[in-house]
Design goal:
Layout: H1 2-6, H2 25-41, H3 48-55, H4 59-63, H5 69-92, H6 97-109, H7 123-133, H8 143-148, H9 153-169, H10 176-196, H11 209-220
């Protein structure tokens, strides 16, 4: 899989950025250090001025790539879900329908390990940001318009792929889209609880969010 991923370019919807950060060294440094800085101080405290200081560049140079920090978060979120989607496609395409669904749950809920295929992106830190900050990319007043503009197309496509696996496994189940989105969002939420509210989750002591989601899906899809 590493060889395949090394030849791929993660495609993010073009409307999210003003200039493709993958097209220049500065753009890649913006992405690399924004991930580090947001992980360190949180998205609310993050500013382009602080990022400019981090990368030794003017704040105005960052605005040539993204018109706001919200658009930057949308970019990071879209990149992450596209990266997950590539893994989902590559790791499940030869599997039978039952094994495929189990493997898919693992992929969208597992603890992330760094992928050396993308040297300017630390996927471990990006996953931590997605767990903590992903909801801020869509819990806005502009969400409906941004949805129409295609900002969430990658995330939705990932949900559709998982939904189709659920349908293939159990065509009679009435809520495949709801279950698919619950697996993805629930996995993030359980990772958050495991790290910050351990008293209200059972995901600890060898029981991961993946274990929980597999159990939930298995019991939900029983004939």
């Amino acid at each position: 899989m590493d060889l395949i991923l090394s030849n791929l370019k993660i495609a993010v919807p073009e409307k999210i950025y003003l200039k493709d950060p993958e097209s220049s060294d500065l753009g890649k440094r913006i992405i690399k250090h924004s991930i580090i800085l947001i992980n360190d101080i949180g998205f609310d405290s993050f500013t382009f001025k602080k990022l400019g200081t981090q990368i030794g560049s003017n704040e105005s140079s960052i605005y040539r790539y993204f018109e706001s920090k919200h658009k930057l978060l949308l970019y990071l979120s879209s990149w992450y879900w596209a990266w997950i989607e590539y893994q989902l496609v590559i790791e499940t395409h030869t599997l039978d329908k039952a094994t495929k669904l189990q493997r898919a749950i693992e992929i969208v809920t597992r603890t992330i390990e760094e992928d050396s295929s993308f040297s300017h992106i630390n996927e471990v830190l990006l996953n931590k940001i997605i767990v903590k900050e992903n909801s801020k990319s869509f819990l806005t007043n502009e969400v409906d318009q941004e949805n129409k503009d295609g900002y969430f197309v990658i995330y939705k496509r990932l949900v559709y792929r998982l939904r189709d696996m659920i349908i293939n496994f159990n065509p009679n189940y009435k809520f495949p889209s709801s279950l698919a989105s619950t697996i993805i969002e629930g996995g993030l939420h359980q990772h958050f609880l495991k790290n910050h509210f351990i008293s209200i989750t059972d995901c600890k002591d060898g029981l991961s969010p993946t274990n929980f989601m597999k159990n939930l899906v298995a019991n939900t899809l029983k004939s």
